Amino acid sequence: MNHKPQTRAGLIVRELDGEILIFNPNNNRAHCLNQTAALVWRQCDGQKTVAEISLALSRQLGIKLDDRVVWFALKQFDRDHLLASKPKLPAAFAAAALSRREIVRALGLTAVVAVPLVTSIVAPSAAQAATCLPAGSNCSSSAECCSGVCNNSICA
Hints:
The protein is built from five helices and six strands, in the order βββααααβαββ. By secondary structure, it is of the alpha+beta class. The chain has two domains: 12-123, Orthogonal Bundle (Arc Repressor Mutant, subunit A); 124-156, no CATH class.
């Protein structure tokens, strides 16, 4: 299969210490790609096939990687709407063969660090992030109170 994955336009992407942080302003979701997922992400230019990406990853990490590692990363990117188009998973890589457990098993324990991982959160809107409880409100921590002081479950 000659699928050539392409990252989606309109995302805010920042690199930090070998990882990549991606914010999707359309759904207020933030994603953190570990080093391996970041390496795959950088290769998704719409020009390279999965096999070419796998070969580039093997060179960069210094270990022989199976194409399933790239497909696993693409599956996560697709789940999080980070690709321009849906990847067409080859029949040889059934969904069950692309679980994290199967990838670790295929790579062996020495290559666990090579498992691509995308961690996602929903970022609060500006209004939600600025919301705090006024004095006299019930609270469970000082972080909830505008004053920054939760005293006996009441904002001071």
